[in-house]
Amino acid sequence: MEHLGRERKSKKMREKPDFSVKPHELSSIKKVIGIISGKGGVGKSLVTSLLAVAMNRMGYHSAILDADVTGPSIPKAFGIREKATAGSGGLFPVKSKTGIDIMSVNLLLPNDTDPVIWRGPIIGNTVKQFWTDVIWKDVDFLFIDMPPGTGDVPLTVFQSLAMDGILIVTSPQELVSMIVSKAIKMAEMMNIPILGLVENMSYFRCPDNGKDYKIFGESHIDETAKEHNLQVLAKLPVDPEISSACDKGLIERLEGQWLQPVADRLTKL
């Protein structure tokens, strides 16, 4: 009996702990896609927003969970100023002009410019509450705008939320390729399918001659993708219209087919 007890205890210690949490009981979410980057400033939130808009235009009900708690930029890109509301059953996301459901910490703060000076565990718990306490109704694609890097909060999200796949956003600088490899390896260690890579700020198309210029140098994304047996799904340009649309909260009016290959990939999940 003592031997069996030791054996059960040893087996329990070998089993990986389950940190997953269930969504709100009134939620209905078909696919969950994480948008990640190895570092900040590469356009992860932009790609998240553009993808939600693209899928919405294709007739899918898309939503965004802004898990980048200390740098929430999603509401501004959509021009959302109203605050999220709560009922007896839970929190309700704010709808954008075209019907995209959005939840972000900025929709709960008194002022958009109030800093979020919280420790990592509190930020992680906030993200989990956006999953467990928010009622996501009839959502076809829920996009999670992840915090950059491979630290505590991304780890919490990976372990807690059931994801169907992730997209990794990068930029052309050589240093980024090394950081992207870290993000890829983290996703592989967490056994989350990597749908592909998206490169932002890939080139600038001159309006005078129509030529493309690589103002941030030669890209290394194709080599990185080949090394990890992944696919480069899209390359976004440096375009003043994109920046202007985000600044003015008009991203839903922005025209462009840059992420259509990504949208097509998502429809095949």
Summarize this structure as a short list of keywords or feature phrases.
alpha/beta, Rossmann fold, 20% strand
Q: What does this protein look like?
A:
This protein has 269 residues and is of the alpha/beta class. It has a single domain (25-264), classed as 3-Layer(aba) Sandwich (Rossmann fold). The protein contains 9 helices and 11 strands. It has helices spanning 2-14, 44-57, 74-77, 120-132, 152-160, 174-189, 221-227, 240-247, 260-267, and strands at 29-36, 62-66, 85-86, 91-92, 94-95, 101-103, 139-145, 165-170, 194-205, 212-213, 232-237. Strands 1, 2, 5, 6, 7, 8, 9, 10 and 11 form a 9-stranded mixed beta sheet that branches. Strands 3-4 form a two-stranded antiparallel sheet. Helix 4 runs parallel beside helix 5. The protein is globular. The relative contact order is 0.19. The mean pLDDT is 87.
Distance between the termini: 49 Å
* CATH H-tier superfamily: P-loop containing nucleotide triphosphate hydrolases
Which CATH class is shown?
Answer: Alpha Beta
Count structural domains: 1
- Rg is 20 Å
Which class of secondary structure composition applies to the elements?
alpha/beta
Shape: globular
- Extended strand count: 11
Count of DSSP H/I helices: 9
Outline the secondary-structure elements.
Layout: H1 2-14, E1 29-36, H2 44-57, E2 62-66, H3 74-77, E3 85-86, E4 91-92, E5 94-95, E6 101-103, H4 120-132, E7 139-145, H5 152-160, E8 165-170, H6 174-189, E9 194-205, E10 212-213, H7 221-227, E11 232-237, H8 240-247, H9 260-267
Parallel strand pairs: 1-7, 1-8, 2-6, 2-7, 8-9, 9-11
Antiparallel strand pairs: 3-4, 5-6, 9-10
Helix pairs in contact: 4-5
